[in-house]
């Protein structure tokens, strides 16, 4: 007997699994397919891979029942310091006391553990891990995916959530604007002598941004941060090949002693940086979410949050349609989802791309002009407020799931 569900979510990462859980809260059933092994993704170890969760995204996690599970593992971001090479003229973004934090930092492992545990206990989610999709079909009355073992999964709507290299997007022939930054992000976990005081640092160098993101102290009281260091692609192999001592020395030089003595814990990883934005995020019985729809530079830590806003909007559109008697693959609903998300995703993508180019211009004069502009922002409360609202994800038309 066929187990036809509302959604066929291809990709069970942070965005895909959040979508399945959010949909379940609205009574929508799903098949979730992912190639990865959950045990590998949640293995013990501190490696610095972490995500900044904005206020709006934290509201989403709370509204799908994960707040209590995640709260002990999140490090509040009390303020954000933005500086051009640690020269005078930085911006300090700090919310009013009644507004709480600017967001929370979570180790990706903790986010996955919470999502996977909740999905395993949710009867409306059928989770197919370590599974390869060999064929996708989108017909007039439904969609299906054939797995490598011959299993055929059926649903009303297919959702591509596999990330930047989404085979579902490619299979649908959706066109995409794309360019390579010729940079690579190096990710590492840092342990340092001084506390970070819940401050996230974004230090811009001509070669690329150098971000220090606060994490909770380790089990032995060690002060920890996540490092996201952007280097030119031509230099990346050399940086990754450095000895632990040499790598630490390079990191410490760029930190200017703000956290005292520093060491690297765990293994480093890296990934290439590029820009991509699809011409459209829906097709016949298909919707794209997260990096499958828009891959942006990690310069402002907005990539995952952008994907979670996709989740909130898509679930709200589908739930509204269900109340009107429409099924999830209805073209009217998909058109509404695309229209809702197009301005926000394009604006954030364009802003992060612009910042990348703006701070990548070397020389004393460009640096002086940038710092002058930063000084204007620092002294203009309404402008700072706008930037903070954007960082917290609290601007524009928010889906209900992302409201407090």
Question: Which structural class best describes the helix and strand composition?
Answer: alpha+beta
Strand % is 25-35%
Which whole number gives the mean pLDDT? 90
Helix content: 25-40%
Based on the coordinates given, report the CATH architecture of the domain at 5-72 and 109-178 and 275-359 and 390-402. Answer: 3-Layer(bba) Sandwich
Tally of helical segments: 12
Number of strands: 19
Shape: globular
How far apart, in Å, are the first and last alpha carbons?
A: 41 Å
Give the uncertain stretches in residue-range form.
Answer: none
Indicate the radius of gyration in whole angstroms. 21 Å
Tell me the CATH topology of the domain at 5-72 and 109-178 and 275-359 and 390-402: FAD/NAD(P)-binding domain
Q: What's the CATH H-level homologous superfamily of the domain at 5-72 and 109-178 and 275-359 and 390-402?
A: FAD/NAD(P)-binding domain
CATH class wording of the domain at 5-72 and 109-178 and 275-359 and 390-402: Alpha Beta
């Amino acid at each position: 007997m066929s187990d036809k569900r509302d959604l066929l979510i291809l990709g069970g990462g942070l965005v895909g699994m959040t979508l399945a859980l959010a949909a379940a809260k609205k009574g929508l059933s799903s098949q979730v397919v992912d190639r990865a092994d959950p045990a590998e993704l949640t293995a013990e170890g501190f490696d610095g891979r972490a995500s900044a969760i904005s206020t709006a995204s934290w509201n989403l996690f709370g509204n799908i029942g994960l707040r209590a599970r995640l709260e002990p593992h999140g490090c509040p971001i009390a303020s954000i310091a933005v500086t051009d090479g640690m020269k005078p003229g930085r911006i300090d973004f700090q919310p009013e006391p009644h507004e709480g934090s600017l967001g929370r930092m979570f180790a990706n492992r903790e986010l996955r553990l919470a999502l996977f545990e909740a999905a395993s206990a949710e009867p409306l989610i059928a989770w197919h891990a370590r599974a390869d999709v060999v064929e996708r079909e989108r017909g007039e009355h439904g969609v299906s995916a054939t797995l490598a073992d011959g299993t055929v999964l059926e649903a009303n709507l297919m959702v591509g959530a596999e990330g930047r290299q989404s085979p579902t997007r490619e299979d649908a022939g959706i066109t995409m604007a794309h360019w390579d930054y010729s940079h690579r992000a190096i990710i590492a976990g840092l342990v340092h002598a001084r506390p970070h005081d819940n401050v996230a640092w974004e230090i811009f160098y001509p070669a690329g941004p150098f971000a220090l993101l606060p994490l909770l102290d380790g089990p032995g009281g060690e002060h920890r941060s996540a490092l996201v260091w952007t280097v030119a692609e031509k230099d990346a192999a050399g940086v990754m090949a450095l000895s632990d001592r040499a790598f630490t020395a390079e990191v410490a030089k760029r930190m200017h002693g703000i956290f005292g003595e520093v060491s690297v814990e765990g293994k480093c990883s890296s990934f290439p940086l590029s820009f991509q934005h699809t011409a459209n995020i829906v097709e016949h019985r298909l919707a794209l979410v997260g990096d499958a729809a828009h891959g942006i530079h990690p310069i402002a830590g907005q990539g995952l949050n952008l994907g979670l806003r996709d989740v909130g909007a898509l679930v709200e559109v589908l739930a509204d349609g269900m109340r009107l008697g429409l099924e999830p693959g209805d073209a009217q609903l998909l058109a509404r989802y695309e229209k809702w998300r197009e301005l926000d995703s394009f604006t954030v993508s364009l802003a992060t791309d612009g910042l990348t180019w703006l701070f990548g211009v070397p020389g004393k004069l460009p640096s002086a002009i940038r710092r002058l502009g930063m000084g204007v922002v620092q002294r203009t409360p309404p402008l700072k407020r706008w930037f903070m609202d954007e960082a917290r994800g609290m601007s524009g038309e928010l889906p209900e799931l992302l409201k407090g």
